[in-house]
Amino acid sequence: PELEPGATGAGLQLVAELAAEYDGDVSAEPAADHGGKVILVRFRMPS
Questions:
Q1: 21 to 18, 34, 36, 42, 44: CA distances (angstroms)
Q2: Which of 2, 4, 22, 34 has its CA 20 to 30 A from that of 13?
């Protein structure tokens, strides 16, 4: 996914790059019970 420079920490940037490499994606949505966000990462594990 295309992430804006400086918009994420180095760890999340690395996870996003790995997800993209394995045909995955990263999404974020507001957390239901507090002011934070929920980050969902999906990618295929090589077999």
A1: 5, 32, 27, 11, 9
A2: 34
This model's pTM is above 0.70: no
Residue 3 lies in a domain: no
To which H or E segment does residue 36 belong?
A: none
Q: Count how many domains the chain has.
A: 1
Helix, strand, coil distribution of the chain in percent, nearest 5: 25, 25, 50
pLDDT in tens, the chain (47 residues): 565 666 657 788 888 888 888 889 999 899 988 888 899 999 887 77
